[in-house]
Design a protein that fits this description.
The complex is a heterotrimer.
Chain A lengths: L11 E6 L4 E9 L5 E10 L7 E10 L4 E6 L41
Antiparallel strand pairs in A: 1-2, 1-5, 2-3, 3-4
Chain B lengths: L1 H7 L5 E6 L4 E9 L5 E8 L14 E3 L4 E6 L6 H11 L9 H4 L2
Antiparallel strand pairs in B: 1-2, 1-5, 2-3, 3-4
Chain C lengths: L3 H6 L5 E6 L3 E10 L5 E15 L6 E15 L4 E5 L6
Antiparallel strand pairs in C: 1-2, 1-5, 2-3, 3-4
Classes of the chains: A mainly beta, B alpha+beta, C mainly beta.
Keywords (chain B): mRNA processing, mRNA splicing, Nucleus, Ribonucleoprotein, RNA-binding, Spliceosome
Function (chain B): Binds specifically to the 3'-terminal U-tract of U6 snRNA.
Subcellular location (chain B): Nucleus
Chain lengths: 113, 104, 89
């Protein structure tokens, strides 16, 4: 019954942080406070001026307090929007389904302690 | 533990979770824990035009601390039972346990 | 013994006014609460007040939006104050 992250261990996950950033990585470990170990991670940076940009982050720990949502998959369902920018030469993973267009950034979570 | 028990009675139901950053996610309540962390299945974002980057979310673990509201279908809630459980849990003498389950 | 939560206990099954952070106000019937002030309300009307500054005149424009929700769980940490039974509305 408890909400656990066990089924997503060693799988790709997307994390929305409290400051509104989206980070994709492989869930290497976690604890009760949602402190997370993510490896091979990158941030998906969205803005209204340019299509999504990936920023490589590598291996790190996210402190649980700063986690808002953890979702399975490096991103699954396809989504329409602006056409994919022609940057497919990296061609790997399931990124084709990612929303790569422009988007207003997500607001940060206010009053979170 | 009152709301933990309450949300357990809503497992399998459709709910809308509004976060403190105004994002609203709808989905089927899969599980809840004592911190009121919530796991939703088949998630959809309300206002997809504003949040296209979140349309790809499918199954979500939502940290209890970032929740502002959870909208529930009124017909999924037994308000009498809930009020009785609330009165007991907050009664001056004793702090209760999982009262909602006892009554079932 | 008159603890603050005793007052809220007396408001069960009554319509209450709840003021929240970020200029949000709720009016609804109270069905449940706990020591964190997590709550369940029904027939809720939420009012959100926003103030914007007019770019040219610098005047403050106050606008109120309301919406109705049938049944709502409210997380206690956003609640600023709770006012027991409403006579009005």
């Amino acid at each position: 019954m408890a909400s656990t992250l066990s089924e997503w261990k060693s799988k790709p996950v997307t994390v929305l942080t409290c400051d509104g950033r989206l980070i994709v990585g492989t869930l290497k470990g976690y604890d009760q406070l949602q402190n997370l170990i993510l490896c091979k991670s990158y941030e998906k940076v969205y803005s209204v001026d340019s299509p999504m940009e990936k920023v490589e982050l590598g291996l790190f720990v996210v402190r649980g307090d700063n986690v808002a949502i953890i979702s399975d998959g490096g991103c699954g369902k396809s989504s329409s929007g602006e056409n994919n920018n022609g940057n497919s030469d990296e061609g790997k993973e399931e990124e084709i389904d990612d929303y790569v267009g422009r988007a207003e950034p997500i607001m940060e979570i206010s009053g979170n302690r | 533990m009152l709301f933990y028990s309450f949300f357990k009675t809503l497992v399998g139901k459709e709910v809308a979770v509004e976060l403190k950053n105004d994002v609203i996610l709808t989905g089927t309540l899969h599980s809840v824990d004592q911190y009121l962390n919530i796991k939703l299945l088949t998630v959809n974002v309300v206002n997809q035009d504003r949040y296209p980057q979140l349309t790809s979310l499918k199954n979500c673990f939502i940290r209890g601390s970032v929740v502002r509201y959870v909208q529930i279908d009124p017909k999924d809630v037994d308000t009498e039972l809930l009020q009785d459980a609330t009165r007991k849990e907050n009664s001056p003498q004793v702090g209760g346990g999982a009262l909602m389950e006892d009554k079932k | 013994m008159e603890e603050p939560l005793d007052l809220i206990r007396l408001s069960i099954d009554e319509r209450v006014y709840v003021k929240c952070r970020n200029d949000r106000e709720l009016r609804g019937r109270l069905h449940a609460y706990d020591q964190h002030l997590n709550m369940v309300l029904s027939d809720v009307e939420e009012t959100i007040t926003t103030t914007e500054e007019d770019e040219e005149t610098g005047e403050e424009i106050v606008s109120k939006k309301t919406r109705s929700v049938g049944m709502l769980f409210v997380r206690g940490d956003i609640i600023v104050l709770v006012s027991p039974p409403l006579r009005t509305s």
